[in-house]
Amino acid sequence: MDIVLDGQALVLHGAFDVRSTWEVRNAIYERLESSDSDVVIDMTDVSTIDVTALRLLAVATRHAWLTGHHLTIRNPGPAVRRMVHLTRLAHAIEVERAAATA
């Protein structure tokens, strides 16, 4: 898993699973603690995700809310969306809505 900071967004590349959860967790919490603004996690290049990673996102979303921040997921691919749906964590993870195109 590669994590790149792009403005306020953490851009993730690769497989987001139990092996990379701790690294992603540290990056998210570091951003939440070091910034007064909201955090966006860009998942455009995330190839796969597992339940452990989704639980991390749910807990981090709750932590952000409790500390007065907002954590949003941007551009989740079909595999990520499918796992969010299957695990029924859609209510706990905020996904950025894409702008409608005409």
From TrEMBL:
Alphabetical list of Gene3D superfamilies matching this protein: STAS domain
SUPFAM superfamilies on file: SpoIIaa-like
Alphabetical list of Pfam families matching this protein: STAS_2
Stretches assigned to the STAS domain: 10-102
Highest taxon above the source species: Bacteria
UniProt name for this protein: Anti-anti-sigma factor
